[in-house]
Every structure is written in C-alpha cells, then in structure tokens.
Amino acid sequence: MKCYINTDTYKEIALKTQEELTDICREYGIKITDDIKNADIIFSIGGDGTFLESARVAESKEILGINCGTVGFLTEIHPKDIENTIKEILVENYHIEKRMMLEGEIIKSNGEKIKIPQALNEISISKNTFGVVRFDAIINDKLINSYTADGIIVSTPTGSTAYNLSCGGPIVEPTAEIITLTPIAPHTILNRSIVLSDESVVKIKITELRGDTKSYVLYDGNPIEIATGDIVEIRKSKNITKIIKLNNQSFIDTIRENIS
C-alpha cells in the first residue's frame, strides 16, 4: 500500500502528528509517496480546511481525515488513534462514505471561459467590504430570481454545515445528492434557501457592481475575481470524495456533538 500525506503546515500539532504517522507507516510497511497519483490512500492531517484541499486533489482516491483542527465534521480520527486506525485499514475493516462535489466555469463577457476547480463544500459568490452585488439566479436556463445581496452560496450536502449553515441554510444529510442555494444577506423578501436536484445547472449572472465593489467566486474559500456581465455556471462534478469511515457514528450524532 502507498499513501500520500497532506498536512496543515501552519499547525505544530499537525506537523508532530505527521511525524508520528510517518513512523507508524514505516513500521507497518506502508510506503509514503510524494506523487498523489501513485497513492492508494490519502491521509489528511489538520482541520476541515485541510480536508477540503485534500478532496480537491484526490481524484476520487480514498481519504482519511486526522483531526488536528477544531470542529472536525470531516476529520474524525484523533491523533492518538492513528496506530489502531492503520491496523483497521490494513485488514480492510472500514467503509467508504461517498460525497458529491461541485464544479463549474466562469463565462466572461468577452466569451472567455475560466474553469472553477471542484469543491466539496460549496461554490459561492461573495464581495469585498463595499456595497452589494446584483445578480440573476438561473436554474436550468430559467430565471428564478434577481437578487441584490452580499452574494449567494451553491452548496453540496457536505457543505450544508459550513458557510451555508452560517447564512441560515438547511442542514442536509451529507450522502444525499442535492444542491442548495442560499442567498447571503439578500435585500428581498425571498430570503430562503432553494433545494434543487443534483442534475440542476445553476447560473449566476452578475448584473451590477457599483463603485469600488468587487465580487469573487469562492470554491471552498479560494477566490477568483469576477466582473459585471460574467456568468458563473455551477453543476455537479463527475468526481466524488471517498471518505474512510471506521466507526458507526451517525450524521445525527455528529450534528449533536458539534452544533448543540
């Protein structure tokens, strides 16, 4: 077995955990590779942010999250449990939880297309500290609403407990296959989330940015600047995230522990 290790290098505990994992892998005959394409499994050491980064480059390889962060919706293994976890993986005593992802592109007003990398949590439209964004939300080529708002979140079920939840969106069972639209501080009566089929294609057309207002596409928090007239097209990705699960803790248990 070959593994690739992705670590949050800004956290001392994550770096220490990486050293411990490296020693354990050598002890149990697991080779560590620097080329993710050659890996059978990916170890993500850090918080949920590190896991999102791992999912983006995993190319549907299996990922195990080791929690050196805070909330840990995605990283369920504690550093002290690494050796026992390795033993369970070697005898294939685990199951895989599959999560849908999003992908998309920015269609500039001049026709140029910019690919948006795939995202496990969400692809959102946001702004800087000035003004508001005016945009049309279009579903399967049909206008659903025109918004004046701080932005909008297009979320996967996995992302429902992230930015979406902070903006009043619904909590969704993470293995479901739906897309949720949640406006961010809209200046409108229609301020509720909209739940869509995973086959839906979402287009957000930026209709106006006034003055010094700047707007961005954020794929799991990573920004790409957009301008008036741009169209952001978002759809379900062909790739999925495969999360290694060793315990039988349910989604409801996780919600109760992390949100209550």
What share of residues is helical?
10-25%
With helices defined by DSSP (H or I, 4 residues minimum), what is the helix count? 5
Strand content: 35-45%
Global Rg: 20 Å
CATH class of the largest domain: Mainly Beta
Largest sheet: 10 strands, mixed
Query: What is the succession of H and E elements?
Result: EHEEHEHEEEEEEHEEEEEEH
CATH topology of the largest domain: Tumour Suppressor Smad4
- The CATH architecture of the largest domain can be named as Sandwich
Number of strands: 16
Question: CATH superfamily name of the largest domain?
Answer: Probable inorganic polyphosphate/atp-NAD kinase, domain 2
* Uncertain stretches: none
* Overall pLDDT: 94
Q: Give the CA-based shape.
A: elongated
Number of domains: 2
Task: Report the span from N to C terminus.
Answer: 39 Å
Helix- and strand-based class?
Answer: alpha+beta
Can you describe this structure in just a few lines?
By secondary structure, the chain is of the alpha+beta class.
Output the keywords:
ten-stranded mixed sheet; 5 helices; Rossmann fold; alpha+beta; six-stranded antiparallel sheet; 18% helix; 260 residues; elongated; Tumour Suppressor Smad4
Mind explaining what this structure looks like?
The structure is a single chain. The chain has helices spanning 12-27, 48-57, 82-90, 163-166, 251-259; strands spanning 2-7, 31-32, 41-46, 62-67, 95-107, 113-119, 122-127, 133-139, 142-149, 151-155, 178-184, 194-197, 202-209, 215-219, 222-226, 231-245. It has 260 residues and is α+β, with helices and mostly antiparallel strands. The protein has 2 domains: 2-93, Probable inorganic polyphosphate/atp-NAD kinase, domain 1 (Rossmann fold, 3-Layer(aba) Sandwich); 101-238, Probable inorganic polyphosphate/atp-NAD kinase, domain 2 (Tumour Suppressor Smad4). The strands form 2 sheets. Strands 1, 2, 3, 4, 5, 6, 8, 9, 13 and 16 form a 10-stranded mixed sheet that branches. The chain starts with a strand and ends with a helix.
